[in-house]
Amino acid sequence: MSRIFIFNIRILSVGIALALALVSTARTEENRAHRHRLIPDHLKFQYAGNMGFISIGTGYSILGGHVHSDVFYGYAPISRCGEHIHQITWKNTVLPGSIRLSKRIQWTPVAAGAHLSCKVGNNNRETWVILPNRYPKNYYPPTAVHLLLTVGTCFDYRIPGSSRRAGMFLEAGTTALYLRNWLRERHVSLHDILNVSCGIRRPF
Questions:
Q1: Does the predicted model carry a pTM greater than 0.85?
Q2: Are 134 and 142 a contacting pair, CB within 8 Å?
Q3: What's the pLDDT tens digit per position in 113-164?
Q4: Is residue 36 a contact partner of residue 69, using CB atoms and an 8 Å limit?
Q5: Of 27, 85, 89, 147, which has the fewest beta carbons less than 10 angstroms from its beta carbon?
Q6: Residue 16 burial class via C-beta count within 10 angstroms: exposed 0-12, middle 13-18, buried 19 and up
Q7: Measuring CA to CA, how many Å separate 79 from each of 26, 46, 127, 196?
Q8: Spatial CA neighbour of 108 closest among 155, 171, 68, 173
């Protein structure tokens, strides 16, 4: 009787050990999948667009690829702007639907976005994050922080032998401040407030 009891205890111990091993393996795989989700899935390069003369960013394609959320660093040299400009932009673009043009190419006719951009570095006489001492407290809002608005189109190309897609995009955009001035001031034209940008997207 005692031998049967001891045998059952051994079988139970082996079962518990196997169950713990399976749980540990499942948790390890879950942790790996979680860490994988934290890694950005693409890299972008952009020319112009109120984000710097040239900018580079990385981020995520979420909600089935219908939303891109990226963080960009942009730079404009002194030869273009009269000073060295560094910008950080949180860019969010919605791609509501696409049209398949061929086996590998698809076209998104309309992509719209709202982005938050901030010039970083020392305050100067024209742009600042912290109000300079020469002005009364709360006299002006930060002029280095802007809401950017864009509308554009993009093309995606499926890489041969892979499910990943590279892409290129073209956008027209402005800032919320420029848009407000256009709505208020008759002498301000769309040509004055709009800019055109383009870029490419490379998957990781």
A1: no
A2: no
A3: 999 999 887 555 667 777 777 777 777 777 789 999 999 999 999 999 888 8
A4: no
A5: 27
A6: exposed
A7: 56, 19, 18, 20
A8: 155
Token pair of 132 as six digits: 């300079």
User: Radius of gyration over alpha carbons of the chain, in Å?
Assistant: 26
Helical H segments across 39-163, by residue range: 78-81
Torsion of CA 43, 197, 183, 112, to 10 degrees: -40
Write the burial class of residue 171 (CB in 10 Å: 0-12 exposed, 13-18 middle, 19+ buried): buried
195: Cβ–Cβ under 8 A, 6 or more apart, which residues? 48, 49, 50, 172, 173, 174
Instruction: Quote the CA–CA distance of 115 and 91 in Å, as a whole number.
Output: 4
* Phi–psi pair at 84, nearest 5 degrees: -80, 125
